[in-house]
Sequence to fold (550 residues):
Amino acid sequence: MLDVYGRRDYAIIGELVEPKTRVLDLGCGEGELLAWLREHKQVEARGVEMTAARVQKAIARGVSVYQGDLESALEDYPDRAFDYAILSQTLQETRDPLHVLRGMLRIASRAIVAFPNFGHWRVRLSHLWSGRAPKTELFPHDWYDSPNIHFLTVLDFEQLAAKQGWKVERRIFLSGGREVKAFPNLTAEVAVFLVSRG
Amino acid sequence: MILTTASAVFPSITLDSGAVIAPVEVAYETYGSLNAAKSNAILVTHAFSGDAHAAGEGGWWTNMIGPGKAFDTDKYFVISSNVLSGCRGTTGPGSIHPETRCPWGMTFPVVSIGDMVRLQKLLIDHLGISRLLAVAGGSMGGMQALEWAVAYPESVAAAIPIATTARHSAQQIAFNEVGRQAIMADPDWNNGDYYGKRPPARGLAVARMVGHITYMSDESMRQKFGRRLRAPDQFEVESYLQYRGSKFVDRFDANSYIYITRAMDSFDLTERGALATLFEGVPTRFLVISFTSDWLYPAYQSQEIVSALRSRNCDVAYINLSAHYGHDSFLVEVEQQSEIVGGFLASTFQHA
Fold:
């Protein structure tokens, strides 16, 4: 399996993306994933990132990144501008996740979404035992300084996809950097979904 | 860094207005060496008061052009030319009219940003370069970079418009008009007929003073001058502006001031159609940069360009750099800019 900058979800995404495609990474940070995809998969790489310092690093890396808010950035792109729109570990931080997901599936044929699973057993136990907002390795923040504003589980995403009529083409679940298959809503720390409009 | 100062003369150029200038001369400098494939040429386009001398001692972008710098002359062949209607070696209102044998003055035809770029294209063809790696410039230089991408999309792999706009705003036109009126109100201007006599130095100096205020920011002026006094009855900022005004008169022609500011004011890419339509199918890569404290060419003007490019799925990178020098940031703020421009050029060169 691939290992991209130690980020396991990057490695998974790297495997999901077909070579020589057009890829948009929303919330691309310093463009590490895009640079890797361009180098190894010869993709046409674009990104959106809010923080100027990260955009600076990404452009210096040679990746075409647009500095802006990802939720409003989606509006400008024409339909089907990309083969893949990627949202890695950011869905839970967006104001309007459904709007973002719909936008991704408008501008791209497929969406790749990676998010931390709020249904993991450690999260459930933390909440059950402490009686407070869960705090785990996966969700390390106090409730008042967390960037996460929407909490979702593997089941939640599956249900939303079914309700919206999206087709889940691939689902990959990770725990401790390894792939897990059984009871993903309990065992997965990170879920990666490859979704199309169906 | 190999530096060449030269000029080229072409039989004629036809302007947007239909007027013809024949012959036409362009002053230019080059830095670095053109590679065998002729694929490493970068045209840097100067702002309003700039000239062909971009790099080396006293060059307007010397902190960006040179060995190991953003425009690395060890890798790239950098070309810089004085714009049409300028006063630093390229044909302009101060040049001698071929028939009358007198300076053109205000009989010089109206010039556009498109005309400036057309002359640059003649120069690039003359140098045997069919496709530029990049065209880069700030302010009016950025307008030329945009014009290149729209007029000659196949001849430019990348465009780097910095601190610029696709069309001059009412505020930008207004400041330019104050400058022009200052010149025209000077009796020495004499309807532009002052060559060989006393030039409108007072008017030109005042015009430059206004310009300088618009290039700075409230914060940079506060840091640079504050309320410090130079003399009991003179603030530091007054002394600075007067100094810059008087220095400008030594190297700039008042009629060129009028012609070049008019070219900027008339610049409006949207006259040719919606921006997005103009960018349709343009293969050029874009790097658009604005600066947070630039109130003369505010970020929204760059974002308008970027939004149009993205709506046509063009390859564009955009950053609004945090810098407090106002519009001058593109000349002064080199650290962040160098990292971005250097990386962008390297990847363009690698994949071109």
About this structure: The beta strands of chain A are 22-26, 44-49, 64-67, 82-88, 108-116, 167-175, 178-180, 190-196. Residues 8-119+153-196 of chain A form a domain with the Rossmann fold fold (CATH 3.40.50.150).
